[in-house]
Design goal:
The chain is an alpha+beta fold and 506 residues long. Helix content is 53%, strand content 8%. 40% of the residues are buried. It binds protoporphyrin IX containing FE.
């Protein structure tokens, strides 16, 4: 009897404590409850995480401290203040690393550059930059591969869609396109996941794996690690999805590495005359042997595929959606192509790569899409030692600091009152030149020493695809098709981008 009465009294006291907290916090956008912290609000908003984080950051002057449940060490700081971001990513770079929590969440990525810290990261960056991305032969090869794929597959595929009068998921087509071009760069062969005919479109498990993996990794950010580790152990839920997708992708990667090596050995005597591919370049440096064995080669290659696949295709999907819903912007892009790339009696030709540099307005439009819909919407780092951010917020040792690239593209303090408008003009000067915005403000490619190594080639690829498609087709989003972001570490569209194409003659 005493226990029952005691229980009632405890419930009563707890009820009053909660009522008291509710009254004190009811105007707070994220109430901080005893014991459970801010978890309920975050759970409620996990489906619109990026927009909700933007709202919270705007209300709190750009920086916010998330309080997790008591004694769980899950509190973190989230910021969209460019001065803080500059501090974390550049000025105080030595004090921030990806940290063990990041590496645990992203364990599928292995020992590649995305996961690495300190000495390993420097080594990975050297490999990526000096060996591959900076080389002249790489850039030449890249532009040839993209041009060929656009001419032989992407445009014929869309022509076919047009002829058949069917609706197509443009995001899926672009994702297949970037998957094929990346594989051609990495392995030296095109898996042709994007055919040149609509009727030949097939479901391919390994090509579908990356979006699934990115989605599961997003969930891992928001559920306690013991829970997802338990799911992984007993092979259920999201973790089961990741395991299946991971196995499909790994099978493809290892088979492709073996194939690529066999092809190389056929032309080993005149190695420089062979077609450049990444596996060959890495093998020359000793990767794939001994300590830097097959698994390490797989990690490097996987990181490059992840870096360049969903980022470019999702960036392009948001770009096409924005252009198709802003007819004035579309008309200006078409006019620019007409003025700069077409002489009398001649069609727009993508063989003239140098013409792309003249398309300043198109450059502005692509960057505007990346500002509003950055393919990587948030980053997280971990403080090695405690310090104080320029905003005055204290960061303790081992505290996670997130910065929202998505929110930074939507802050009035950075972009002005019309920050939510898609307005390429803001990135083009009155004299018709590109306005350079510091990378800690235009953050889509990150900032500081860990900035994206593929920025130039991505912009080149995006402009090439955008100009090629827009000069040939008018894109119309299918009426009623919902366009919302997917819950993922890459900002893809949840339902794809269903469009109808009509031919355009310019
Ligand atoms: C629109 C396309 C792209 C966007 C928006 C983008 C954005 C980013 C961002 C935000 C990061 C920082 C990620 C982090 O630190 O966790 C990053 C890193 C990186 N990106 Fe990109 N990326 C794009 C395309 C590419 C491409 C095509 C490549 C290479 C082929 C590439 C290679 C890399 C590499 C190697 C890193 C790691 C840099 C480091 O940690 O030092 N990216 N990218």
């Amino acid at each position: 009897m005493c226990m029952i009465i005691g229980g009632f009294i405890a419930i009563f006291i707890l009820f009053f404590i909660y009522i008291h907290y509710w009254r004190c916090n009811r105007d707070e956008i994220v109430p901080n409850w005893p014991v459970i912290g801010m978890v309920p609000t975050f759970v409620r908003h996990v489906s619109d995480f990026n927009d909700f984080a933007t709202l919270v950051l705007k209300r709190h002057g750009g920086t916010f401290r998330f309080q997790g449940p008591w004694f769980t060490n899950t509190s973190f700081i989230i910021t969209a203040d460019p001065i803080n971001v500059d501090n974390i990513s550049s000025k105080n770079f030595g004090n921030y690393g990806k940290g063990s929590n990041f590496q645990e969440i992203f364990d599928f990525f292995g020992d590649g550059i995305i996961n690495s810290d300190s000495h390993d990261w420097k080594q990975d960056q050297r490999t990526m930059y000096h060996l591959i991305l900076k080389g002249k032969s790489f850039k030449k090869m890249l532009s040839q591969i993209i041009q060929k794929k656009v001419e032989n597959c992407l445009l014929p595929f869309l022509e076919d869609v047009c002829e058949e009068g069917v609706h197509v998921d443009l995001q899926d087509a672009l994702n297949r396109f970037t998957f094929d071009t990346n594989c051609t760069i990495v392995f030296g062969f095109d898996p042709n996941t994007l055919p040149n005919k609509f009727s030949e479109l097939r479901e391919i498990a390994y090509q579908k794996s990356l979006p699934v993996i990115e989605e599961v990794i997003f969930y891992r950010h928001f559920i306690p690690s013991f829970l997802w580790r338990l799911q992984k152990w007993i092979h259920v839920g999201q973790e089961k999805k990741l395991k299946i997708a991971g196995e499909n992708l790994d099978r493809f990667l290892y088979e492709s590495i073996t194939f690529s090596k066999q092809e190389q050995s056929k032309c080993s005597e005149k190695i420089d005359e062979c077609y450049f591919d990444l596996v060959k370049a890495l093998k020359k440096e000793g990767y794939g042997e001994g300590k830097m064995g097959e698994k390490y080669l797989r990690d490097i290659i996987l990181n490059l595929l992840i870096a360049g696949n969903g980022t470019i295709s999702s960036g392009l999907s948001w770009f096409f959606w924005l252009v198709s819903t802003h007819p004035i912007v579309e008309a200006k892009i078409i006019q620019e192509i007409k003025d700069n790339c077409i002489t009398q009696n001649e069609n727009w030709s993508i063989s003239r790569v140098e013409d792309l540099d003249k398309l300043v307005y198109l450059h502005g439009a692509v960057c505007e899409a990346l500002r509003l819909y950055p393919p990587i919407p948030f980053e997280h780092m971990c403080a090695i030692k405690s310090n104080i951010l320029p905003s005055g917020d204290r960061v303790s040792q081992n505290t996670k600091v997130m910065y929202s690239l998505y929110a930074m593209g939507r802050m009035e303090q950075i972009w002005g009152d019309d920050c939510m408008k898609f307005k390429p003009e803001r990135l083009v000067s009155e004299t018709g030149n590109i306005i350079r915005v510091p990378s800690y403000k235009f953050i889509a490619f990150n900032t500081g020493p860990r900035s994206c190594l593929g920025k130039d080639i991505s912009l080149f690829q995006m402009k090439m695809v955008a100009a090629s498609i827009l000069s040939k087709f008018h894109i119309q989003v299918v009426e009623g098709h919902p366009v919302t972001p997917k819950l993922s570490i890459v900002l893809r569209m949840k339902h794809g981008l269903k469009v109808k194409l009509t031919r355009r003659c310019i």
